[in-house]
Design brief:
- There is one protein chain.
- By secondary structure, the chain is an alpha/beta fold.
- The chain has 2 domains: about 220 residues, 3-Layer(aba) Sandwich (Rossmann fold), CATH 3.40.50; about 70 residues, Alpha-Beta Plaits (2-Layer Sandwich), CATH 3.30.70.
- The chain is built from 10 helices and 14 strands.
- The strands form 3 sheets. The protein has a 6-stranded mixed beta sheet with strand order 6-7-8-3-9-10, sandwiched between helices. It has a 4-stranded antiparallel beta sheet with strand order 2-1-4-5.
- Strand 12 and strand 13 form a beta hairpin.
Length: about 300
């Protein structure tokens, strides 16, 4: 059975179309990721799926229940961790956990085995006010509170935003363990590197899904020659590459520049010679395999061109 089924769901706020006719499904026990920048519509979509916002159109089912008609029966089966810290800052760590258990008619003791691995590092601080915890600790507490009633489907909205790299890695390890226990997990993130940690991902931009597939399959759709270029004056290098007659797209990526050629095949030596002729003596050019971010940029470019073509 599919844990989540969404058909043509849409939501607007005045003139802003936050989610535009989105359809997808998540399999039971899957770790499914929504990848996209701020403003892509991820939070609006999640709020509709966890029964906090009414869709304008379309329908959605979570754990076999309709998110509007069956919302009362559905809520106890959902775990939701919103993007901003939304626990009670003045209550202690332990009081927060007890409160969220009681809301769902259960106790911490009854479900402690499920959150033990996540909550254990917080035990020494159980009397501390939740608002005084570090980012990584707040995140562990919020996840514990979202899990304490043993939900069947867990929705996590940008759970690793604003958290250090070590805590981010720890968090994904925790998700792996939860998935192994049979919980379906739907997570959103603006970090492209986290996409690789999901079973399948949906690339989202401007309220639409650009692609839904496994990370490997998404990367394999990149069908043009891609090179990483490095050189001393990066800004000038970027401009020189954009002026190259066969350039399809050129973007800065970390410490390099990703150059995509418009032809079916391209020779890195030819590109090196072009750059050397323009004074980039130290320019390095190497062929690379496309990552999720490269595909995302290409899909966004195609979407913008199609959009411009309509006007």
């Amino acid at each position: 059975m599919d844990a989540v089924v969404v058909r043509d769901i849409a939501k607007s706020f005045g003139a802003v179309r936050a989610v535009v006719g989105v359809s997808f499904s998540v399999r039971e026990g899957e770790l499914f990721g929504f990848i996209g920048p701020d403003g892509a519509g991820k939070t609006t979509l999640f709020r509709m799926l966890v029964t906090l916002l009414l869709p304008d159109a379309g329908e959605a089912f979570v754990d076999g229940l309709h998110v509007v008609n069956d919302y009362r029966r559905l809520r106890p089966r959902l775990g939701y961790m919103p993007g901003r810290f939304s626990l009670y800052p003045d209550l202690s760590v332990e009081e927060n956990l007890k409160f969220f258990a009681s809301v769902f008619g259960t106790t911490v003791e009854e479900n402690y085995d499920l959150v033990k691995g996540i909550y254990a590092p917080l035990e020494p601080f159980k009397d501390r006010a939740a608002g005084k915890l570090s980012g990584g600790m707040k995140q562990k507490l919020a996840l514990s509170c979202a899990l304490i009633h043993r939900p069947r489907v867990l929705f996590l909205d940008e759970p690793t935003t604003g958290v250090d790299a070590v805590s981010r890695q720890e968090f994904w390890e925790m998700l792996g363990r939860l998935k192994a226990s049979g919980i379906t997990i739907v997570v959103s993130t603006p970090y492209m590197d986290e996409a690789r940690l999901c079973d399948r991902v949906a690339l989202m931009q401007g309220g639409r899904l650009l692609s839904v597939d496994t990370p490997d399959r998404i990367e394999a759709t990149y069908d043009r020659p891609l090179f990483a270029a490095r050189g001393s004056d990066r800004y000038r290098l970027l401009k020189a590459l954009r002026a190259y007659p066969h350039a399809f797209s050129v973007y800065a990526f970390g410490d390099s520049i990703h150059y995509t050629d418009a032809r079916e095949t391209a020779d890195p030596d030819e590109l090196r010679q072009y750059l050397r002729a323009r004074g980039f003596e130290d320019a390095e050019v190497e062929p690379i395999r496309a990552g999720i971010e490269d595909v995302f940029m290409a899909l966004m470019q195609a979407q913008e061109e199609a959009h411009d073509g309509h006007h």
